[in-house]
Amino acid sequence: MAEPTNTPMPASTPVPASTPRSGSPARPIPIPSLTPSATSLTLPLRQSSKTAAAAAAAAAAAISRRPIVLHIGDPVKYNPHTYAEFSSAFEVVRPSAAERERGAFMRALREQRWGDFSAIFRPFWGSGGEMGRWDAELVGLLPESVRVFASAGAGFDWADTKVLGERGIIYCNSGLAAAEAVADFAVAMVISTFRHLPWCMNAATLPFLLSSSSSSSSAPAESEIAAAAARRAFQSCHALATAASHNPRGHVLGLIGFGNVGQQIAAKLGHPATFGMRIAYHDVVRKSASVEAALGATFHPTLDGLLGVADCVVLCTPASPDGRPIVTAEALGAMRRGARFVNIARGSLVDEEALADALEAGQVGAAALDVHAEEPAVNRRLVGMALGLEGDRPGTVMLTCHNAGGTVETHVGFEELSMRNVLAVLQGREAVTPVNLQFLVGGS
């Protein structure tokens, strides 16, 4: 992993004597500080050496008072203007990739290598998690000065937000930035479960792939056999998929979790002018009557109650209230027979072996999973079902590679929202997207 390209030069770094100086007079340059208790500094036009030294010492002292932010993960890529504001307000320290491995990271915390930093900043989901789960062991090593942990991504099953809150640390996620991309992807997955898209796609392409991989010969006879197999697969799917496919309109869409992502899915799939599905949801906190009315959503106070009426269940909650899987064998058994299941939340929230059992038994008619319990490994039984290699119902599962939130626009938002959360908390304002205020000592 490349070393940082955007970490500002520490205040203690001397400026080389050979650094060129402009020969023309300059106007005074105001340098506003974003630190609440600090004042703006202005560079004068001309200074004696004694005055210049005093001004430099004052500037260095002001900079040294800046809160330290520990930046874990890749450099900021998409938001240079916000990062300029961010790095003016704080002294940003970015550990190397080697220092972020769990053992090395914990040693560095014990040694107080990065001082009394005030915030942890993780702007990219694909990096910055090298130290593993933020559990009590790791959180317990943080200095008392830490006030906020702002991260990319919507899910936070990798961080014990209760332990963080009890230490007085506000955890902020970036689910708001990914909501539209994830909701769009969820729409495609819901449609897949109703129209058996893996079956349709595999029948058009898989026979060619299998024949070319199993034979090193390009003899005309073998080519004709492969072509005939491909035609049969195409014709079979064309003839048989119809009886297993349905329009989503009028079916009940059951949403587990009704935050930003869940509400956007409801808006996209529930509107009469689009797919016209009937919206039902379960959440730990019921939404307002105005939200329910706007989206035509019906609240179910229990998970089993929701599962019993839904024709397609979408898991879109960022975490489990108790840290355990939500979709278990018992939950799958509570679903309507033949109902569909979509997971665009967290792989750890689903018992995948129980899901495979339910698919084999016909309890679940089709599934689509973007996230997986053992990423990057994917459950082999589900892979077989996705390829149509197991059972008598080919292509009942769509599998993707944690792609739902993966757009440029999402990553722009991850960076921006993470920085804005740190700026807000360290400047004495309310966090933009906190998720653990209920665990803060004294409550919030």
Automatic annotation (TrEMBL):
Polar residues bias locations: 1-22
Origin superkingdom: Eukaryota
GO CC term, one of those recorded:
cytosol
Every D-isomer specific 2-hydroxyacid dehydrogenase NAD-binding domain range: 242-384
Q: Does the keyword Mitochondrion apply?
A: no
State the residue spans of region: Disordered: 1-37
Q: Where is the D-isomer specific 2-hydroxyacid dehydrogenase catalytic domain?
A: 135-436
Query: In its UniProt entry, what is this protein called?
Result: D-isomer specific 2-hydroxyacid dehydrogenase
